[in-house]
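Lab notebook, design round three. We kept the backbone fixed and only want residue identities now. Task for the bench partner: fill in a sequence for the structure below.
Input structure tokens:
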């Protein structure tokens, strides 16, 4: 069974897509068969991996709205073991079209049964909103990864996001957990950045990843070349940070799996 994580934050510009793309690339580089599913109508994750979002023949729109099997839209990337389920501009209208559909919140979850056995990790990049596309991702996922920008205003939307996660857990996906909060755009020269980190750690404790993603020019440049930071500038501060994040997540997931297996195998 793969680990399925939705990357969610209703606030834009917090590094959500940057994290989805680069974490996926480093997981693949660590030997994990990885699928990145783009359900953001902006399709930035798709273009960040070198695909022209205006010329995608079949996308997550066709999966969610037209019941196309997910395996028929999956594209190979230039990275070994990294595939993408691309988005396209048509997805912008999906929120309205999904409203009248049966099981509208579970369409991505049903679609994943088509491919999940092929992967170790499935990451879902969500739009910066808490609409039906994000709810589909939360319903399909086991856990949520929340990028949090190291600025004061980034904290204001966290309570609303946590309420949404709680509602999804209560009505659609009882097993959904907050897998971790990731502090992004960290600038060690700014006292405010450390204050925000401290406040998030105070509220969420060990749910906060130890890795801090720095502000990085290279991270901003890489998408314009259609490359993850692993290919574009692996030894940059951003490259080293995402490598560390991948290792931290892998180690944490491994520890959780061992703990769960020990509980299952414990004699009654």
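Proposed sequence:
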């Amino acid at each position: 069974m793969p680990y399925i994580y939705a990357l969610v934050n209703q606030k834009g510009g917090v590094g959500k897509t940057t994290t989805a793309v680069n974490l996926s690339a480093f997981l693949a580089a660590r030997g994990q068969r990885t699928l990145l599913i783009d359900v953001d109508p902006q399709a930035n994750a798709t273009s960040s991996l070198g695909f022209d979002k205006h010329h995608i023949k079949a996308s997550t729109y066709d999966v969610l709205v037209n019941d196309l099997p997910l395996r028929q839209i999956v594209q190979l990337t230039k990275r070994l073991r990294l595939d993408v389920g691309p988005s396209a501009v048509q997805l912008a209208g999906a929120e309205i079209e999904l409203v009248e559909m049966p099981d509208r919140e579970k369409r991505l979850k049903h679609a994943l049964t088509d491919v999940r056995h092929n992967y170790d990790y499935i990451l879902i990049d969500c739009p910066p909103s808490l609409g039906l596309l994000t709810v589909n991702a939360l319903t399909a996922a086991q856990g949520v990864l929340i990028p949090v920008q190291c600025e004061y205003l980034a904290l204001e939307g966290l309570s609303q996001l946590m309420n949404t996660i709680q509602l999804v857990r209560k009505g659609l996906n009882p097993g959904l957990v907050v897998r971790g909060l990731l502090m992004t755009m960290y600038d060690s020269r700014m006292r405010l950045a450390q204050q925000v980190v401290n406040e998030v750690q105070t509220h969420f404790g060990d749910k906060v990843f130890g890795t801090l993603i720095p502000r990085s020019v290279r991270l901003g440049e890489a998408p314009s070349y259609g490359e993850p930071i692993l290919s574009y500038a692996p030894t940059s501060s951003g490259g080293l940070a995402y490598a560390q994040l991948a290792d931290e997540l892998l180690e944490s997931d491994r520890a959780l799996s061992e703990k769960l297996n020990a509980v299952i195998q414990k004699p009654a």
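Keep this in mind before ordering anything: The mean pLDDT is 94.
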